[in-house]
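Q: Could you fold this chain for me?
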Amino acid sequence: MTLKRLDHISVVVDDLAAAIAFFTTLGMTVEGEAQVEGPWVDRINAIENVQVDIVMMQTPDGHGRLELTKFRHPQLVEVEPAIAPPNTLGLRSVMFAVENIDDTIARLRANGAELIGEVVQYENIYRLCYMRGPAGIIVALAEEL
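A: Sure. Below is the predicted structure, expressed as structure tokens.
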């Protein structure tokens, strides 16, 4: 088998400080920050003159990582619709296991996040919800019962 692990998920954001605040409120910590540019970045992205600021965030258990990327050059490309619904084709959500879903929702709402639908219970296993986070991404929350 060639696959070793899921290393990280990348989220392109327009407001890096707000995204850091959101994921810090969720319970992640900043693992590292860097400004990245150069020929290798241009080649891997197939875009010329790429200049990005990257912040790596890590989950408390040390196993999950999220890369927040802010493009300084070139300008961001807008997607239509900007706030895509959960049934939009492609990567739609990142799910986090949380200790207390109600407390987590309250803390994230204080940072501007929106509850998409409602908190639901799946059998006697989980309480679940979707929240709209930075750059319109959907952050799913799951509290084990």
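A (continued): The two ends are 34 Å apart (CA to CA).
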